[in-house]
Design goal:
Largest sheet: 6 strands, antiparallel
Distance between the termini: 12 Å
Oligomer: single chain
Radius of gyration: 18 Å
Structural class: mainly beta
Length: about 220
């Protein structure tokens, strides 16, 4: 169960909440372990890292470099090694996670040369990982929720910008709150200043120093 029930209110700085989710017994006495994330291990990339050669260069085109950024694209779990980030030389890094020829999530890293660890860069707004986290939080909290799953569960190391095709229909978009949930530690932290907005193409845009699963709720989280 969630210890120390609470409601976040008027948070002016980053806040951290440690939560523990335990299996809930059904009427038949069977345990439902789908919400127990204590054994979660961040996945390794399912195919090669995005670097294409021994020089640790990313697959991109010269026009992007001239415009000051590098962009990669994939549909699965992919990452960039820290040695490549160090070699970006001030260029912005962008990565698109694509589903059915449409971008689900675009990750922007403006200070990519400051990344000091191998980093998974894939993000999703649909799929089993999204549903798993949504089910966990829906069990304990009364809010309407949306979830973005990042394969990277550790912090990014810098503040990144996100554009995600999140369906916000039926939500009060004027009062959204953003949290980052780390499955491995069961830590849920409020993103105090996400600076969010929705662009003309329907992408929700925000900023976060935290990776993990991003929980988007109407108003601060309230325990059922």
């Amino acid at each position: 169960m969630l210890t120390n029930p609470y409601t976040f209110a008027k948070a002016m700085e980053d806040s951290e909440l440690h939560v523990t989710f335990k299996p809930q017994s059904s009427a038949s006495g069977d345990s439902d372990n789908s919400g127990d994330s204590s054994t979660y291990t961040p996945p390794a990339p399912s195919s090669p890292w995005l670097e294409q050669n021994s020089a640790q260069e990313l697959s991109t085109n010269e026009q992007n470099r001239q415009n000051g950024f590098l962009r990669t694209s994939s549909s699965g779990k992919h990452g960039v090694r820290k040695s490549s980030f160090a070699a970006f030389g001030g260029l912005r890094f962008e990565h698109d996670t694509v589903l059915n020829n449409a971008v689900q999530v675009r990750l922007y890293i403006d200070q990519s040369e400051n990344i000091t660890k191998d980093t998974l860069v894939s993000g999703y707004v649909t799929g089993t990982e999204v549903e798993r986290t949504h089910k966990t939080f829906e069990r304990w909290f009364a809010n309407q929720l949306r979830v973005i799953h990042f394969d990277q569960q550790e912090d990014w190391g810098v503040t990144v910008r996100i554009a995600a095709k999140v369906d916000l229909s039926g939500t009060d978009t004027q009062n959204l709150c953003f949290y980052s949930y780390n499955r491995a530690t069961n830590a849920c932290r409020r993103i105090a200043v996400p600076a969010y907005w929705t662009d003309q193409n329907g992408y929700l845009r925000f900023m976060t120093p935290y990776a993990g699963d991003i929980i988007i709720s109407e108003r601060p989280l309230e325990r059922k």
